[in-house]
Amino acid sequence: FFNKLKTYEVEHEDASVPAVLDWILLSMELGESPLAGDTDWSQNDAVNILTIHSAKGLEFPVVFLVNLVSQRFPTTERREQIPIPDDLIKEVLPEGDYHLEEERRLFYVGMTRARDLLYLTAADYYGEGKREKKISPFVGEALGEETVRQADGKTAREKKQLSLLEWKKTETIPLGPRPARTVEYLSYSQIEAFQLCPLHYKLRHILGIQSAPSPALSFGNSIHLTLKDFYQRKQQGERVNKKLLLELLDKNWLREGYTSKKYEQEMQRRGQKYLEEYFDVAFDAKSTPVVLEQPFTVPIRAGGKQMKIGGKIDRVDALPSGKIEIIDYKTGRVPSKREMDTSLQLSMYAIAATEVATPPFQKKPEDITLSLYYFDVQQKISTTRTQEQLALEKEKIVAIAKEIETSDFRCSGNQLCSNCEYKLFCGIIGV
Fold first, then answer.
1. CA angle, 100 as apex, 95 and 104 as ends, to 5°?
2. Where are any strands of DSSP class E within 243-304?
3. N or C: which end of the chain has fewer CB within 10 A?
4. Torsion of CA 241, 247, 249, 252, to 10 degrees
5. Of 419, 406, 46, nearest in space to 198 by CA
6. Cβ pair 394, 302 in contact under 8 A
7. Which secondary-structure segment (H or E) carries 395?
8. DSSP one-letter code for 367
């Protein structure tokens, strides 16, 4: 939603609250999703899930119309709780069942979005009840009642609908040669995902299949948002204290991903403990960060290939003699010194600090301190990089990009795959 607001501000001179609200309300009245309406679906190489309203005016090679059963398509008309008497309505009311006619028109719109293949699908049972569903009357109107009777007359075995526990892996064969892919941008999270499991990388970063937020992700984001808000207030000259820090945690707390209210409350108490100890141990009232949650995208070149890397820096502090310290917040295990000295994530921060042309960046490597702050032990660990090290890291990033370009994206079989959010796809060829 916030990305949409940013896009609106760029594309429209008047980005005031009334103008944005009018745009949202108009989109809703038209029955369209702003995201779907502003996306070129013909160029988006993915399975596109749209409402029929959002699909108006578009065309696709293959279209699936789903939920084609009574009370789902057509839907059950929802009448007003207090209907307006016909005698008080000045407009000419349509004859017949207006709701059914509108649903039939939408069904026709959905069918005509298909250029080559159209699939009409229905299930005998859906999650809301045990009563067998009847095929939508619109299907019979479109294909003929005899076709519907033939589809409905299959043997019980052919008609059996598998439950979620009865799913089976299907081996699919890739069709033709794999199209060439050029990697022009990488973030550290993308590199980490690919090195963990190429299939995981493809599902998340190429096909765009996003998983539900995990407790660890929500917890980490809550801490980051709280500290950003806290230090922004300090930048603005506001007097800050421990009480404010804890109040901001309540304000910025993300509830998504937790399996129970009890677990969420335990994690929130842990967050309070982390921030209380952080304030006592690490907060310096005399020091104010110069940059908070700074996104970056910078070009690199190595091995004859040019590409871009990007990410977000949690915090930058200005040090004496014009030097800077980049600080990244962590809630996990404390690394060894060797892991710190070889961390690709920190190297990418250092590359950004040498390449970004705006203050406080564009520094020499020796003027950059790279630090990780660990809340579990309330400890900050620091390292540095040389120009030679950064040159080697650029070559490493480019090598990873070339590896991604030629990958078949098979599951790595990593021990973490057993609990991976994409484990359903493991073992499927040609995903």
1. 115
2. 291-302
3. N
4. -120
5. 406
6. yes
7. helix 387-405
8. G
